[in-house]
């Protein structure tokens, strides 16, 4: 990736206004907003331009971004168009627990708060306003849910509440050995993940419309070949992302290229392709936003293959059905 053309990180100093008085401030921070700051509408257009770079991390900073009354609208828009959105508020009275909860609800992935001294005196001296250290600590405690864990301690309850790593919802196509495991692991790291298979009651297009990330872990059958086509991509929200770790033929590659080039999808990670190994002239190589890996998502070791072979042989010797046996009527 060329970071001159597609930056990895974009930091928007969304306002000059800030109620702190740090000794190192280079923003010439002042209490009131500069009337020449970008309007909300201009902010949306700026975010669109940032999104057109690809998928940079987006950081709202300032001054103090909370001085902008439209901050939450801008954050929601940033999340909606698929930017991983972060915020660095100043530790002022504006940084209430409610504001932190609103960051979470709006889909902020990370919040950073500066701590500049080992105690209140040194921190507040640096930040120029008494009480700033305590506010920063309180905000960090609330963001990490420490109050809840303290309540739990009183109840002798050892219960984790994983922080969501992202607000993106993930739909995993296929709920077998591989898909089920993926849903399970994504859930453990705090992602909202759900599985779909041919027996699921909801139509696939409905679920596609509710998930920003789609992971394909389906078996390849007549029914699933080309399942990720133009219709499926159109059903996904703008800025969606596709991951294929199953078989190349699940994806109609020309449709995917069109969906990514048009900007409807943010991109795709294809561990498998229709033509493997991919020839030099395959158009997938050069689509910005599409990542190609050479079928390496799962590499079976000789030990695993041998163990599976022995288990199947022993099952057959006992006259039993082999584990992982292919059901020819189903095609997998
Ligand atoms: S928090 Fe940032 S913008 Fe505010 S005074 Fe300090 S350095 Fe300046």
Structure report:
- By secondary structure, the chain is of the alpha/beta class.
- The chain has 3 domains: 9-155, TIM Barrel; 169-292, NAD(P)-binding Rossmann-like Domain (Rossmann fold), CATH 3.40.50; 301-332.
- Helices cover 33% and strands 13% of the residues.
- It is built from 11 helices and 10 strands.
- It has helices at residues 40-51, 71-80, 97-106, 120-127, 132-143, 146-154, 177-188, 204-208, 230-235, 253-261, 302-317, and strands spanning 9-13, 57-61, 85-87, 110-111, 169-173, 192-196, 213-216, 240-244, 265-270, 290-292.
- The protein is globular.
- The two termini are 38 Å apart.
**Which homologous superfamily in CATH is the superfamily of the largest domain?**
Aldolase class I
What characteristic shape results from the CA principal axes? globular
The whole-number mean of residue pLDDT values reads 91
Number of strands: 10
Straight-line N-to-C gap: 38 Å
CATH architecture of the largest domain: Alpha-Beta Barrel
Helix/strand class = alpha/beta
Poorly predicted runs of 5 or more residues: none
Task: Please state the CA-atom Rg, rounded to the nearest Å.
Answer: 25 Å
Order of helices and strands: EHEHEHEHHHEHEHEHEHEEH
Proportion of helical residues: 25-40%
Report strand %. 5-15%
Q: Briefly, what CATH class of the largest domain?
A: Alpha Beta
